Amino acid sequence: MSDEILFQKIVRNDAQRLDSFLARFLGEVLPGASRSGIATAIKAGLVSVNKKAVLKPSHKLKINDEVLVKKSRISSENSRIPNENSRISNELFEKIKIIYEDGDILVISKPSGLVVHEASSLKGESTLVDFLKQSNRQLATLGGEFRAGIVHRLDRYTSGVMVVAKSDFASAELSSQLQQKTASRIYIALCDLPLKQNCV
């Protein structure tokens, strides 16, 4: 595996996330590099800060930090889809539908197969949170970067409507409604055998 340098830059502004910094500047040498592709490269150990590998996309940079990206396993062809899991996730991104949006909330239709947010069991897969970040929308920060804008979730293989908070006010209000059960949710399931009793 070659350790040839693809990108090297000194940080000139304080208080930036590593993935945001790379999303802004990496396009100079790698057009089309996506936020999820950058996150995958970071987690794969291809990015170093001051000659030390950094594995967290959310790593905070400081003025005069030196950011270096190895050329290994990154090319303009695969930057958007670094592996098979990411390719599948990007296909799922195309199935996400925006149902409603205003300044506080975003209502989307999540396809089956798409994970809502990162988990230790995932191996470089893109998530709904990645999609939201790539869209450059303002997202609520009450749940942290890990769950940016996410107030509730749907299981991976459950499709359906989700409400995403764009403001911290909306995040707090939606969380309160879910806790107090003033917001209702309806699930529809398909059975391959009849139920023993006719019930609701």
Task: Explain how this protein is built.
The protein is α+β, with helices and mostly antiparallel strands. Helices cover 23% and strands 18% of the residues. The protein has two domains: 5-70, RNA-binding S4 domain (Structural Genomics Hypothetical 15.5 Kd Protein In mrcA-pckA Intergenic Region, Chain A), CATH 3.10.290; 84-179, Pseudouridine synthase (2-Layer Sandwich), CATH 3.30.2350. The protein has five helices and nine strands. Helix 1 (18-25) crosses helix 2. The longest helix is centred in the last third of the chain and has 12 residues, at 168-179. The chain is elongated and about 65 Å long.
Quick summary of this structure?
The chain has 200 residues and is of the alpha+beta class.
Keywords:
200 residues, alpha+beta, Structural Genomics Hypothetical 15.5 Kd Protein In mrcA-pckA Intergenic Region, Chain A, 3-stranded antiparallel beta sheet
How much beta, percentage-wise?
15-25%
Report the uncertain regions: 72-83
Look at the structure and give the mean pLDDT: 80
CATH classification, class level of the largest domain: Alpha Beta
Number of strands: 9
The CATH topology of the largest domain is given as Pseudouridine synthase
In angstroms, what separates the terminal alpha carbons? 58 Å
| SSE order | EEHHEEEEHEEHEH
| Strand arrangement in the largest pleated sheet | 1-6-3-4
Class by alpha and beta content: alpha+beta
What is the gyration radius calculated from CA atoms? Answer: 19 Å
So, CATH architecture of the largest domain? 2-Layer Sandwich
Into which percent range does the helicity of residues fall?
10-25%
